[in-house]
């Protein structure tokens, strides 16, 4: 069975080609989708990539969340299709109310770019099942508006229901409340995070590790997880 993962390009997307390459390296078929279309082309999973959709006007991800294809994304998510939002894609997911809370300017008011340590808090989602709970991974991070915020009762619910997917380890790079780096929905098919797993899928081009420079490929686990989740449903 050939797993087909759609990557949606919005005006201002920067990492759509990188996400397509990551899908291919993981062993699935990438399918390029356009924000103005209403056709998901029968894909098995979806990626909303990073970038600066619509120039990040109003709020990051706010205009993209109203793009024509997002109505199909919402319908697909409701049916259990795996959806991953990366950086700007995570911002789209919260703006589209597929995940709770919001993302604001980094607390230090500067763009940040670093190889970021993360702790996997939930390893049972469609995008994290290749990991183990408590596992530490290294994923590149690059954002100017990555500070996660939510009301205290929402934060308590996220913690209590195990909906925090990833937490920043070692350092909080943007002031996110409770060190939250990524979330999942209750069903576990929608995941959003600020770091960029598509930039950690190929030796020689990933983050530095204790073993060697540019050797980190922890990002492959995200796409391998989606392939496994889709395969399990189809079996």
From TrEMBL:
Main localisation: cytoplasm
Alphabetized UniProt keyword annotations: ATP-binding, Cytoplasm, Glutamine amidotransferase, Hydrolase, Ligase, Nucleotide-binding, Purine biosynthesis
Active site: 87, 196, 198
Catalysis: reaction(s): N(2)-formyl-N(1)-(5-phospho-beta-D-ribosyl)glycinamide + L-glutamine + ATP + H2O = 2-formamido-N(1)-(5-O-phospho-beta-D-ribosyl)acetamidine + L-glutamate + ADP + phosphate + H(+); L-glutamine + H2O = L-glutamate + NH4(+)
Known pathway: Purine metabolism; IMP biosynthesis via de novo pathway; 5-amino-1-(5-phospho-D-ribosyl)imidazole from N(2)-formyl-N(1)-(5-phospho-D-ribosyl)glycinamide: step 1/2
CDD domains: GATase1_FGAR_AT
SMART domains (alphabetical): GATase_5
Entry keyword DNA-binding: no
Compartments (UniProt record): Cytoplasm
Keyword Transcription regulation carried by entry: no
EC number, UniProt record: 6.3.5.3, 3.5.1.2
A Pfam entry, by short name: GATase_5
Assembly description: Part of the FGAM synthase complex composed of 1 PurL, 1 PurQ and 2 PurS subunits.
Function: Part of the phosphoribosylformylglycinamidine synthase complex involved in the purines biosynthetic pathway. Catalyzes the ATP-dependent conversion of formylglycinamide ribonucleotide (FGAR) and glutamine to yield formylglycinamidine ribonucleotide (FGAM) and glutamate. The FGAM synthase complex is composed of three subunits. PurQ produces an ammonia molecule by converting glutamine to glutamate. PurL transfers the ammonia molecule to FGAR to form FGAM in an ATP-dependent manner.
HAMAP family cross-referenced by the UniProt entry: PurQ
Protein name: Phosphoribosylformylglycinamidine synthase subunit PurQ
Organism, as annotated: Microbacterium soli
Taxonomic lineage from the root: Bacteria, Bacillati, Actinomycetota, Actinomycetes, Micrococcales
């Amino acid at each position: 069975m050939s797993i087909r993962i759609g990557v949606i390009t919005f005006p201002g997307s920067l990492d759509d080609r990188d996400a397509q390459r990551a899908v291919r390296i993981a062993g699935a078929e990438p399918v390029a989708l356009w924000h103005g279309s209403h056709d998901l082309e029968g894909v098995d999973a979806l990626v909303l990539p990073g970038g600066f959709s619509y120039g990040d006007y109003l709020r990051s991800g706010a205009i993209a969340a109203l793009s024509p294809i997002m109505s199909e994304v919402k319908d697909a998510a409701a049916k259990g299709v795996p959806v991953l939002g990366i950086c700007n894609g995570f911002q789209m997911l919260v703006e589209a109310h597929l995940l709770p809370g919001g993302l604001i300017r980094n607390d230090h008011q500067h763009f940040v770019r670093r190889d970021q340590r993360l702790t996997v808090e939930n390893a049972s989602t469609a995008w994290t099942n290749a990991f183990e709970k408590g596992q530490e991974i290294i994923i590149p991070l690059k954002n100017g508006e990555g500070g996660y915020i939510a009301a205290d009762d929402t934060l308590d619910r996220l913690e209590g229901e195990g909906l925090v997917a990833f937490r920043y380890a070692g350092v909080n790079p943007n002031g996110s409340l409770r060190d939250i780096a990524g979330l999942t929905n209750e069903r576990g098919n929608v995941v959003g995070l600020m770091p960029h797993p598509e930039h950690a899928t190929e030796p020689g081009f990933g983050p530095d590790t204790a073993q060697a420079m540019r050797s980190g490929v922890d990002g492959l686990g995200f796409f391998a997880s989606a392939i496994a989740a889709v395969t399990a449903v189809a079996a």
